[in-house]
Inverse folding.
C-alpha cells in the first residue's frame, strides 16, 4: 500500500469573513507513512483538520479520502468511512466512565438504533472496549468517570475513542500538548507503535518529536503549504527556517 | 446490602404501594387521594418526557404541553367528533402527539440550548392559539367534553369502562407502568447510551460516527410519545380536553417537576410530580402565594442537589451501602477494578 494517497487535499480554501484562514491547500497524504503538519500559530493547521473531518465546510476545494470525495459530507459519515481524529482541546465524554467512553465509540460501528437490545450484550463493543482499556494502560481506571482522569490519561482516552472506531486514517491534533516528560515519552511511543498499522497525520508543535516520529513533514504558513519533504529535507529548507524554525539550529 | 439491592427494594415497595393504593391510601387519608395519585402518575409521564429530553439527550424543552394537548384533543375529538371507540381514540391521541413531535422535531432539534427552548415554546404557543380559536373543532375556551366510551362490551349490557373507578385506576397504572418499563428498556439499550453520549459532548459524538441529529430527533419523538400517552390518559381521566393544558405554563410545570425529581433518573419525575402536586393540593386553598414556596424549593434543589431528589437519593444509598468511593487522582493509585459485563449499570 505504501505510496498510495489515502487523503487528497485539493485546493482547499476557507474564508472567515475577509480573512483567508486557508488560501488553497494542496497536499496528498500517502499511506504507510506518518505525516506531520507543522507551522506557526495561525497557519491553518487545525482549520485544515476541521475541513477534512467535516466540522467546517470549505469555501472552495475538494477533499478525497480513499479515492472518494468526502467534501461537505456530514461529520458522522466521514467518521464511518474510517477517518478519526482527536481535538486540540481534549474532548471525551466527561460524565461517562472510561469504559463507557470506549464502548460507545466501538458500538457506533455496529449502529446504535437498537432500542430493544441490552447494551451490555453487545459482545463486539464490550471486547473492543476491554481490549483498548488494556492496550492504553487504562485498565485500572476503566470504571472511573473520564472527568476525574489526569490530563495525560484523557489524551490517551481520546486516542482510544478514535481507535475504537477502527479508523484507516487517524488525525492527531497536538497529542502531547500539555503533557509532562514521562507522559510525552509514553504517548510518542504509542503513536509510533500505532503508525505501524494505521496511517497517521499529526499536528505538533514539539519539533523534536516531529523530527523523531514522522516520515513526511508538511510545513504550513499563512494558510498555505510552504514546503513538504522528509525530516532531513525540511531541516535544510531555507524558507522553512525563516518562516518557522528561526535561524537557530537548535530550534 | 449493596446499593443495587436497595434500589431494587425501592422499586418493589413503590410498585406494591401503587398496586394497593386504592385500599391502602383511604386508611390514612381521604379517599379522593386515590384519584389524585392516579393524576400524579399521569402528570409524571409529562415530566418523564421533559426528563428524557433534558436528562438524557440534553435538550431543554418548554413545549412538552403541546404533545400533551395533542394527546388530549386526539382522544376528545376522536370520541366526540369522529365517534371513535375507546381504543381507537386512545391510539388516535397517541398517534397525533407522536406525529406532531416528529414534525416539530424535524425543525426543533436542528437547534440546541436556548434556541431549542425558544422554538419549543413558539411551537406550543402556535397550537395553543389555534386550539383556542378553532371553536367548532376544539370548543375554544370551553374545551371539549365527551362521554366515556366503553373499553370492552360483552353481550348486550355488560361492559367494562373507565366509569368504574377501580378500572380507571388500574388502567392508568398499567399504561404509566408500561411507559416507564419501555423507557427503562430503551435507556439500557445502545440507543440509550447514545442519548447520553450526545448530551455529554455532541461534537465528540459525531466524530465517533454517531448521527447526532437523528439521535436527537428520535429522543424528541419518544418524548412526544410519552407526553401524548399522558395527555390521552388525562383526557379519559377528566372526560375533557382543553387548550389551557397546552399553554406553556403547563410545560414549565413539567420542567420544574423533572428538575426537582432529578433529571437523568428514570423515576425522578414521579417523585417531583408527586411532591409538587401534593403541595399544590394541600397549600393552594390555604395560601394563595404557595408558588413562592415552590420557587424556594426549586432554588434549593438547583443549588444544593443539581441532580434533584432522585440524584440525592442515589448518592445517599451509595454512601450508606458502600457504593463508589472517591475517585483516585492517578492511575497508579486506583484500585484494580473488576471488569463488568456491561458498559455500566443503569441508575434508577
Amino acid at each position: 500500500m505504501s505510496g498510495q494517497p489515502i487523503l487528497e487535499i485539493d485546493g482547499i480554501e476557507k474564508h472567515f469573513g475577509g480573512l483567508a484562514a486557508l488560501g488553497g491547500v494542496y497536499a496528498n497524504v500517502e499511506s504507510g507513512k506518518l505525516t506531520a503538519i507543522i507551522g506557526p500559530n495561525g497557519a491553518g493547521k487545525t482549520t485544515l483538520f476541521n475541513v477534512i473531518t467535516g466540522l467546517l465546510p470549505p469555501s472552495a476545494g475538494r477533499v478525497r479520502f480513499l479515492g472518494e470525495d468526502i467534501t461537505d459530507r456530514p461529520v458522522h459519515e466521514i467518521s464511518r468511512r474510517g477517518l478519526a481524529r482527536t481535538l486540540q482541546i481534549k474532548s471525551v465524554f466527561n460524565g461517562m466512565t472510561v469504559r463507557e467512553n470506549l464502548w460507545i465509540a466501538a458500538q457506533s460501528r455496529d449502529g446504535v438504533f437498537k432500542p430493544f437490545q441490552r447494551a451490555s450484550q453487545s459482545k463486539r463493543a464490550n471486547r473492543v472496549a476491554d481490549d483498548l482499556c488494556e492496550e492504553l494502560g487504562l485498565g485500572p481506571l476503566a470504571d472511573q468517570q473520564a472527568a476525574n482522569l489526569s490530563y495525560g490519561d484523557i489524551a490517551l482516552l481520546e486516542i482510544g475513542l478514535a481507535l475504537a472506531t477502527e479508523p484507516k486514517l487517524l488525525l492527531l491534533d497536538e497529542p502531547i500538548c500539555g503533557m509532562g516528560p514521562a507522559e510525552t515519552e509514553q504517548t510518542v511511543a504509542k503513536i509510533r507503535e500505532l503508525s505501524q498499522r494505521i496511517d497517521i497525520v499529526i499536528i505538533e508543535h514539539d519539533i523534536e518529536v516531529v523530527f523523531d516520529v514522522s516520515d513526511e513533514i508538511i510545513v504550513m504558513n499563512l494558510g498555505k503549504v510552504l514546503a513538504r519533504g522528509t525530516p532531513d529535507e525540511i531541516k535544510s529548507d531555507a524558507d522553512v527556517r525563516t518562516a518557522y524554525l528561526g535561524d537557530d539550529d537548535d530550534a | 446490602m449493596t446499593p443495587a439491592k436497595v434500589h431494587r427494594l425501592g422499586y418493589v415497595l413503590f410498585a406494591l404501594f401503587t398496586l394497593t393504593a386504592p385500599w391502602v391510601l383511604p386508611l390514612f387519608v381521604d379517599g379522593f387521594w386515590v384519584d389524585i395519585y392516579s393524576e400524579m402518575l399521569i402528570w409524571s409521564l409529562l415530566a418523564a418526557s421533559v426528563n428524557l429530553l433534558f436528562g438524557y439527550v440534553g435538550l431543554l424543552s418548554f413545549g412538552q404541553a403541546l404533545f400533551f394537548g395533542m394527546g388530549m384533543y386526539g382522544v376528545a375529538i376522536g370520541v366526540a367528533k369522529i365517534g371513535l371507540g375507546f381504543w381507537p381514540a386512545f391510539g388516535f391521541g397517541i398517534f397525533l402527539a407522536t406525529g406532531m413531535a416528529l414534525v416539530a422535531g424535524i425543525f426543533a432539534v436542528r437547534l440546541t440550548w436556548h434556541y431549542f427552548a425558544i422554538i419549543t415554546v413558539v411551537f406550543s404557543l402556535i397550537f395553543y392559539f389555534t386550539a383556542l380559536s378553532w371553536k367548532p373543532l376544539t370548543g375554544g375556551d370551553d374545551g371539549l367534553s365527551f362521554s366515556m366510551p366503553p373499553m370492552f362490551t360483552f353481550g348486550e349490557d355488560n361492559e367494562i369502562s373507565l366509569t368504574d373507578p377501580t378500572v380507571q385506576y388500574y388502567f392508568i397504572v398499567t399504561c404509566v407502568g408500561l411507559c416507564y418499563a419501555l423507557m427503562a428498556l430503551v435507556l439500557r439499550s445502545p440507543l440509550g447510551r447514545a442519548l447520553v453520549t450526545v448530551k455529554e459532548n455532541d461534537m465528540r459524538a459525531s466524530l465517533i460516527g454517531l448521527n447526532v441529529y437523528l439521535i436527537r430527533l428520535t429522543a424528541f419523538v419518544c418524548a412526544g410519545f410519552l407526553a401524548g400517552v399522558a395527555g390521552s390518559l388525562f383526557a379519559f381521566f377528566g372526560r375533557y380536553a382543553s387548550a389551557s393544558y397546552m399553554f406553556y405554563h403547563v410545560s414549565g410545570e413539567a420542567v420544574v417537576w423533572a428538575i426537582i425529581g432529578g433529571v437523568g433518573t428514570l423515576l425522578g419525575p414521579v417523585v417531583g410530580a408527586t411532591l409538587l402536586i401534593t403541595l399544590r393540593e394541600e397549600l393552594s386553598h390555604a395560601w394563595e402565594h404557595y408558588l413562592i414556596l415552590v420557587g424556594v424549593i426549586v432554588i434549593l434543589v438547583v443549588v444544593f442537589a443539581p441532580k434533584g431528589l432522585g440524584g440525592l437519593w442515589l448518592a445517599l444509598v451509595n454512601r450508606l451501602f458502600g457504593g463508589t468511593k472517591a475517585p483516585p487522582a492517578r492511575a497508579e493509585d486506583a484500585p484494580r477494578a473488576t471488569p463488568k459485563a456491561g458498559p455500566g449499570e443503569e441508575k434508577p
